[in-house]
Structure formats: structure tokens, C-alpha cells
């Protein structure tokens, strides 16, 4: 397309491209330009020498990470916790959206949505404190246990409970907010499909399984692919707020390991190398998941 043809193509929708501009600038400034810093993963970076003056060391920091005695532990913990969150947490927003969509009383629906959404707006500092207090020896959960004659359990100090605490607290905090996208997708389903199904004698469960879910399947697939791409990036805030040395063996993940070893000790090159490893694995998983989605369902991100 020549320059004149390009101007002609842009002119009718120029106002839409203008609205798109802030988003494009955001990704350029905060996502693409910082990628220049990836180079320090292959250097012994010194803030005093800068990127151009630091010594090039190749794959030294990657090798150090892979040979570290803690690598297997943090990598296994990251994969397991991510898998649990994906397996148990991913369907919950879909279920919430399906339930809210069936509510006919507007006041009840608004109230339920508010209750589901509120936890998202709490930082993990606040929400983590609530979780710790609820699971403490004299907290709400142990009060219920003792009420029925049981002995208090130190949930936050027991390895067998910690991963479950991470998964359940994440589901409670984020599932309601994540359901918004599915509610929006459901609202776009053609109402005539439901009317035709009711005329044929379909029950509510038939409408959900044969109309609603197939109609929003593309949205489900896209969000699943995106979440799979972040499987090694659990985020440091939740785990950092909830874990302690007693559960390091089952709770220490790549993000907390990088914070503890890379950033607090000012080993910036090492921290960058681990971050690049996470991003590379995520990119590979996105491509694989997208290919599988296109092959078996006919839809994907691209």
C-alpha cells in the first residue's frame, strides 16, 4: 500500500486510532524500551560502569542459577503452585459468571457482584494480613475447629497446608474480578438462541452446556493461553506476605528466590537472567498452547 492509500485507509477511523495511541505508547515506553536492559543478564553489571562499561560474561548467571542447590526446589514449587492455581482457580470465574448471569433479581445481583469484586481491590499486604489472622492459633478457622472439639492447627507453619492456602486465598481475592470478562462475553450471546432452546424444551443446564459455554469458548481459550504464559510468574507479593522460613521448602518460588538472592544482595545480572528464563519459558508455553488451541478448537490468539 502506497502512502496515499495508507492515508485514505486511516482517515475514516482516525478518532479510533487516536484513542488507541495511549495504549500503544504505554507498551512502547514501559514494555518494549526496557527490554534493552536484558543485556545485563549476560554481563557482570555494575551500576557505576553502566550497561556499556560492564564486562560481558555470556551464560554465567544462567549456569549459576541452574547449578544452584535451590533451583530444583524453587522450580518445582513454582510449577506445582501454578498448576494448582490453573487447575482449581481458572474454572472459578467461569462458574461465578454463569451463576451471576442466571440471577434475575437486580438488587441481589449487584450485591453479589460487589461482594465478589471487593477482595480484588485489597493489596496483598492487607489481604495477606486478613488470611494470617484468620488462620492464626486463635483465629476464626481455629475457633470453629475448637468449637467442634478439635485441636488448633498452626496452618501458616505447616508445610502440608501452605500451598493450599496460597491457591485458596488467590481464588477468593481474584476470581470475582476475573469473572467480569466472562460476564461481558455472556452478555454478547444472542438471546434468540435461548428462546429457541426453551421452545424445544431445554432446561437451564442444557442452555449452559450447549449455548452459553460454546458461545464464550473463544474467550475461555484466549484467557487460558494468557494464564498459561504466566505459569512461572506467580508474583512475589502473595507468597512474600504469607510464607516464612518454616515453609520455604514448599513455598519458595522463583520470584521470591530472585528477590532474596538477586535483589537484596544487589546481584542485578543474576536477577535479570532468572527473569529472562521465566519470560522465555512463558513465551514457549504461549506458542505451544496457541498451536494446540488452533488445532483442536479452531481458535487462538493469532
Automatic annotation (TrEMBL):
It is a multi-pass membrane protein. One of its GO terms (cellular component) is plasma membrane. PROSITE patterns: ABC_TM1. Keywords: Membrane, Transmembrane, Transmembrane helix, Transport. The chain crosses the membrane at residues 14-42, 83-103, 115-134, 208-232, 268-289. Residues 75-289 form the ABC transmembrane type-1 domain. Belongs to the binding-protein-dependent transport system permease family. This is Multiple-sugar transport system permease YteP. The gene is yteP.
Amino acid at each position: 500500500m502506497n502512502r496515499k492509500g495508507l492515508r485514505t485507509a486511516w482517515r475514516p477511523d482516525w478518532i479510533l486510532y487516536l484513542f488507541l495511541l495511549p495504549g500503544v505508547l504505554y507498551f512502547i515506553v514501559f514494555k518494549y524500551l526496557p527490554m534493552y536492559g536484558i543485556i545485563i543478564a549476560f554481563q557482570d553489571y555494575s551500576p557505576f560502569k553502566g550497561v556499556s562499561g560492564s564486562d560481558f560474561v555470556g551464560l554465567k548467571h544462567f549456569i549459576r542459577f541452574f547449578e544452584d542447590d535451590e533451583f530444583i526446589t524453587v522450580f518445582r514449587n513454582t510449577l506445582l503452585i501454578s498448576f494448582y492455581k490453573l487447575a482449581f482457580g481458572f474454572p472459578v470465574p467461569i462458574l461465578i459468571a454463569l451463576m451471576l448471569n442466571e440471577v434475575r433479581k437486580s438488587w441481589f445481583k449487584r450485591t453479589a457482584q460487589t461482594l465478589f469484586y471487593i477482595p480484588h481491590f485489597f493489596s496483598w499486604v492487607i489481604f495477606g494480613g486478613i488470611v494470617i489472622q484468620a488462620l492464626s492459633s486463635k483465629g476464626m478457622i481455629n475457633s470453629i475447629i475448637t468449637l467442634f472439639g478439635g485441636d488448633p492447627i498452626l496452618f501458616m507453619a505447616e508445610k502440608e497446608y501452605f500451598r493450599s492456602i496460597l491457591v485458596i486465598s488467590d481464588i477468593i481475592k481474584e476470581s470475582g474480578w476475573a469473572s467480569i470478562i466472562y460476564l461481558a462475553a455472556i452478555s454478547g450471546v444472542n438471546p434468540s438462541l435461548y428462546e429457541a432452546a426453551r421452545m424445544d424444551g431445554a432446561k437451564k443446564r442444557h442452555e449452559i452446556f450447549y449455548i452459553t459455554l460454546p458461545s464464550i469458548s473463544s474467550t475461555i481459550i484466549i484467557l487460558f493461553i494468557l494464564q498459561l504464559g504466566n505459569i512461572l510468574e506467580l508474583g512475589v507479593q502473595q507468597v512474600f506476605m504469607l510464607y516464612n522460613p518454616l515453609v520455604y521448602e514448599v513455598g519458595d518460588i522463583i520470584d521470591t528466590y530472585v528477590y532474596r538472592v538477586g535483589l537484596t544482595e544487589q546481584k542485578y545480572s543474576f536477577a535479570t537472567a532468572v527473569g529472562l528464563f521465566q519470560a522465555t519459558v512463558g513465551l514457549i508455553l504461549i506458542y505451544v498452547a496457541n498451536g494446540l488451541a488452533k488445532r483442536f478448537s479452531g481458535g487462538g490468539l493469532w
